[in-house]
Amino acid sequence: MTMRMRTRASVTAGVGAFAAGLLLTGAAGAQAAAAGLPYAVTPYVNVNVRSGPSSQTGITGHVTAGDPRGASCWTHGETIRDNGYVNDVWVRLAEGYVSAVYLKGDQFGGLPASATC
């Protein structure tokens, strides 16, 4: 399994609770709950949402940097190398998949390691 090669101190400080288990609060929690999804993720850059866990699949939407989205699970897919990170984990949102490379948090985008699809 490929993991992120480095972490961001500013991100990891606030993500420990997400990585340890389910914690939904504020706008991110409200958005995830409204979508009927158990987790919340937030991209740190604008990102495309894909129909599958690969950059070769169709774009089903976009998420703006800082805009929280509900998420259901994570899976392995295409390895993405960008912004100093390398990872093959993709997080499933209601509208499709996003590479965890673009999400705040750990190598699983802040989802628990057990939240596999």
Report on the structure:
This protein is an alpha+beta fold. It is 15% helix and 33% strand. The protein has 3 helices and 6 strands.
Overview features:
two-stranded antiparallel sheet, alpha+beta
Give the DSSP E fraction (strand runs of 2 or more residues): 25-35%
Based on CA atoms alone, the radius of gyration comes out at 13 Å
The order of strands across the largest sheet is 1-4-5-6
Give the overall pLDDT as a whole number: 79
Pattern of helices and strands: HHHEEEEEE
Poorly predicted ranges: 1-25
Main β-sheet, in a few words? Answer: 4 strands, antiparallel
What topology does this entry show?
Layout: H1 9-12, H2 16-20, H3 26-34, E1 39-41, E2 47-50, E3 59-63, E4 69-82, E5 85-93, E6 96-99
Sum this structure up briefly:
With 117 residues, the chain is an alpha+beta fold. It contains three helices and six strands.
